[in-house]
Write a structure and sequence with these properties.
CATH class of the largest domain: Mainly Alpha
Number of domains: 2
Largest sheet: 4 strands, mixed
Helix content: 55-70%
Shape: globular
CATH topology of the largest domain: Glutathione S-transferase Yfyf (Class Pi), Chain A, domain 2
Number of strands: 4
Number of helices: 8
Distance between the termini: 19 Å
Structural class: alpha+beta
Radius of gyration: 17 Å
Bound molecules: glutathione
Strand order of the largest sheet: 2-1-3-4
Length: about 220
């Protein structure tokens, strides 16, 4: 059975956007798998993968890390239904993936960082605080105090995504990895925070469609 090394928080909460993407791919392609819960402090359990981040997929003797490479791996192994169902769509999805990681995550993170801190396993909190406060350039308490300053940027980025889906069922017209990628990111945000993400009826319909299709 395929094993997915999956970030776990307190109360078995699964909260990594990248791990949710890998789960979305396997759900879409109906590939059975089990998860191995990993806390930030369990990195030694990932040594076999030659790096220290999740998701990692172990499929027999094959080990794949990074959500994008995992998507490529399963697309090669189980081509149908396709993640990149046409000319240029893989390249478009790669750009979308980069945009979500760099622009959407960067806009969302300051708003939800303290919520993530509250949701992770208590043993991970010291590491998370130190590493994330360095990244943010401020304390987690300051991110809470400054939420009203960081929220407009997050809402502007989300408004663009709401606009991009208008008039179509999926981001590139037909379902592609782009939809699974953003689905993973939203699962992460929704797991830890109550910030509204879906502003329009059409975007809410996209979300419902994805949840119904994937069943995760
Ligand atoms: N580009 C990677 C990013 C993976 C990543 O950053 N995973 C986070 C969990 S959400 C992680 O393992 N972080 C470990 C740490 O921050 O120490 C992917 O797409 O899979």
């Amino acid at each position: 059975m395929i094993e997915l090394y999956d970030l776990v928080g307190a109360n078995d909460l699964r909260l990594s956007p990248y791990c949710w993407r890998a789960k979305a791919v396997m759900a879409y392609k109906k590939i059975p798998y089990t998860t191995v819960p990993i806390r930030f402090c369990d990195k030694n359990k990932l040594a076999f993968s030659g790096q220290d981040r999740v998701p990692v997929v172990k499929d027999g003797s094959t080990v794949v890390s990074d959500s994008w490479f995992i998507a490529e791996y399963f697309e090669h192994l189980h081509p149908e239904p396709r993640l990149f169902p046409g000319l240029g769509l893989k390249e478009a999805c790669q750009f979308f993936n980069l945009y979500v990681d760099r622009t959407v995550h960067t806009a969302v993170f300051p708003v939800v960082a303290a919520d993530i801190y509250a949701s992770i396993d208590p043993v991970d909190r010291e590491y998370f605080r130190k590493s994330r406060e360095e990244r943010l350039g401020m304390t987690l308490e300051s991110t809470v105090a400054k939420r009203s300053e960081s929220r407009p940027r997050m809402r502007a980025v989300l408004a663009d995504l709401n606009l991009a889906i208008a008039g179509q069922e999926y981001f590139f017209g037909t379902l592609t990895y782009a939809d699974l990628c953003l689905f993973g990111t939203f699962k992460w945000i929704m797991a830890v925070s109550k910030e509204p993400l879906l502003f329009t009826t059409e975007f809410r319909a996209w979300w419902d469609r994805m949840e119904n299709l994937l069943g995760i």
